[in-house]
Write a structure and sequence with these properties.
With 106 residues, this protein is of the alpha+beta class. It contains four helices and two strands, in the order αααββα. Helices cover 54% and strands 14% of the residues. It has a two-stranded antiparallel sheet.
Amino acid sequence: MGKEYLGEFEELVLTMVGILQEEAYGNAIVNEIKVRVGRSCNLSAVHVTLYRLEDKGMVKSNMGGATNARGGRRKRIFTITNSGLAMLRAMKEQQMQLWKLIPQLK
């Protein structure tokens, strides 16, 4: 992990890959972000982010099987790596430590 940092959108996409597991592909991630976070994003932004996360070693990808619904095209399925999971855990821990520093409002 080292001094690798993730931006807010990278963290969101990486989290969705972890949630979706074997169903983590571009359109499914876009839909999951909309449903769970109420935020719209475009498919190309998700793809760019997924490839960046793959370059960082946070996710890996494989081609799924071809389907008739996709006109015989295959989906690129992403899975979170141990490094990606460790990054999410470290980010969560850091956020929890910062939350503890916020004085209680009275």
